């Protein structure tokens, strides 16, 4: 119970609640851990719970065609997923552990009671969903763009959400395989490898062992992705 309470206090969705609230919510929540590549639920499964990432990263996958999956999002600590947080009766996507993960699981009935009892949590959840919808609309707008544009946008989005400033640029702190990037950008593995290798030779990025990427020329990638300047990466 002590570990669960510590985890609840660290989740932004529940920040600022009093100790009594944490103890009450703790009775509704399960703390679960899964290894990398474990499937948490599948597209089409009943949406019977809400999940919150405590540690690690979760891939949200959509089956585009037989044998082909597209990565919709990479979710990190504090982010909520599952049945569009129960607005839908079935999960519209598959959730898979991208790294070893620790998750909070809240059953449907407990989740609805929690939102009713703690309006502050409900407001924060709506803000999170709004941000996710905005990202989804931006990605959809790039569908007809060239592959280079889509990959540039993917790297910029990852750097914005999980970037660490460095004297040479911004480190993307999520380990990414070339296949991960291809699936997020909606292209083939071969094409992603070719483009990333070219950018590496040009000095725009630097790849390191373990799947980490240093984004060295943010402006060049922004020009490709047609994004406005973003603050906080200097």
Percent of residues in beta strands: 25-35%
Helical percent range?
A: 40-55%
Radius of gyration from the CA trace? Answer: 19 Å
Secondary-structure element order, N to C: HHEEEEEEHEEHHHEEHHEEH
How many β strands by DSSP?
12
The largest beta-sheet arranges its strands as 1-8-3-6
Q: On the 0-100 scale, what is the average pLDDT?
A: 84
DSSP summary: helix tally: 9
Structural class: alpha+beta
Low-confidence stretches: 228-234
Q: Which architecture of the largest domain does the CATH hierarchy give at level 2? A: Sandwich
In the CATH hierarchy, the third-tier topology of the largest domain is known as Jelly Rolls
Just give the CATH class of the largest domain: Mainly Beta
- CATH H-level superfamily of the largest domain: Jelly Rolls
Span of the ends, CA to CA = 41 Å
Broad shape: globular
Largest sheet: 4 strands, antiparallel
Total separate domains: 2
């Amino acid at each position: 119970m002590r570990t669960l309470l510590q985890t609840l206090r660290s989740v932004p969705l529940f920040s600022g609640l009093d100790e009594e609230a944490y103890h009450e919510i703790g009775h509704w929540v399960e703390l679960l851990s899964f290894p990398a590549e474990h499937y948490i639920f599948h597209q089409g499964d009943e949406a019977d719970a809400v999940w919150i990432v405590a540690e690690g990263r979760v891939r949200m996958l959509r089956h585009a065609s037989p044998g082909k999956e597209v990565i919709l999002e990479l979710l990190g600590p504090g982010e909520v997923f599952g049945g569009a947080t129960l607005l839908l009766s079935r999960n519209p996507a598959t959730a898979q552990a991208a790294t070893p993960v620790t998750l909070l699981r809240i059953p449907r009935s407990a989740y609805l009671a929690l939102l009713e009892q703690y309006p502050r949590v409900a407001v924060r959840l709506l803000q999170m969903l709004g941000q996710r919808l905005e990202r989804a609309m931006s990605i959809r707008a790039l569908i007809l763009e060239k592959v280079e544009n889509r990959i540039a946008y993917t790297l910029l989005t990852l750097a914005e959400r999980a970037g660490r400033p460095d004297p040479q640029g911004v480190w993307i702190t999520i380990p990414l395989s070339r296949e991960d990037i291809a699936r997020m950008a909606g292209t083939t593995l071969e094409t992603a490898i070719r483009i990333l290798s070219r950018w590496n030779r040009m000095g725009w990025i630097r790849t390191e062992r373990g799947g980490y990427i240093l984004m060295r020329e943010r402006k060049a990638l922004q020009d490709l992705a047609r994004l406005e300047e973003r603050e906080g990466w200097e």
